[in-house]
Design brief:
Elements (H helix, E strand, L loop, with lengths): L4 H13 L4 H12 L6 H12 L20 H13 L5 H8 L3 H11 L16 H19 L3 H4 L2 E10 L31 E9 L2 E7 L8 H19 L9 E3 L4 H4 L1 H10 L2 E3 L10 H14 L7 H13 L3 H5 L1 H14 L9
Parallel strand pairs: 1-4, 4-5
Antiparallel strand pairs: 1-2, 2-3
Amino acid sequence: MELNREQNRLLIWYCHKRKLTALETHAELLATLEAQAPSYATVTRWYREFQAGRTSFSDDPRPGRPPTAVTEENIAAVQELIHQDPRITTDMLAMNVGIGSAAVDTILHDHLRVRKLCARWIPHILTDAQKQARMEFCQFLIDRYEHGSHQRRSEVITGDETFLYHFDVETKRSSAEWVPEGGQRPLKARRSRSQGKRMFAIFFDSQGVVAMVKLEGQATVTARWYTEECLPVVIDSVTQRAPRTGMRGWKLHHDNAPAHTAAATRAFLDQEGISTLPHPAYSPDLAPCDFWLFPKIKKSLRGRRFQSDEELEQAAKEAIDGIPIEDFQGLMNKWLGRAHKCLQFRGAYFEGL
């Protein structure tokens, strides 16, 4: 026969009335009830209760919220609060509605079926017109290149500018290590990206990098630098590849940065007979430099320290040389895949989804 709590307390009270000590009572109960005997801590706690004049053997009523906190009224109140402030905390919900946090969790997860997610960073909050422009560009890419000849697919030279740092920290993922079961997590001191940096313009096609031009003597890219220092290097490199045709038949793709779309740049391109591909605003996810080449180069440079721009430039060139030509040749398929994805999402950003 197994005794309940109240019966155990009755036995403790009986021993207390017999003037036994708590230790003697526990020993007597242990000898009689064996494994079912209450603990010594329980005996001493009830001795204190009886010495204080307690006469009831029942549990005290517990304070707290009633079990009926999850009501239609409270569900509606929580729904209205999260509609007014999607960032409201569960503690604030509990305080405003007047129910416990457990009831709030039940309402949120079981009744409203909501969860709290961190915001996804995107380059820009796109307008409908900007989404439409992205879709039109993607459809243009698909129409021109998806079923185009190898020659047509190879006509694009794309380029952009980016900063490379004398020291850039490794990402958390890139510093991950395999450890045995039960092993300690690796430790790594937190570091900051260096102040030393240099901007480079890099242009490439299906055969590899065409030109890499370092920005010197100024902090930002201007139309003058772009047309007098940068693009002439690209043109010379292409002309050395194809002396007879030069840039004729090639299509230059760059984004719509001010230096790329300035009147002086457009005039220079017209004068050189260079045709360009369009590019929608706020669309680094559709620019091969941004979604493919630059991340590859920077991943190779992370965690390494360079003492000069020359060391940095040489390391970047080595990183580029390490990219197989097949990757450059297959880039158009990646670009078209992104175009289809953009159309699938009606012009909205799709990375991270």
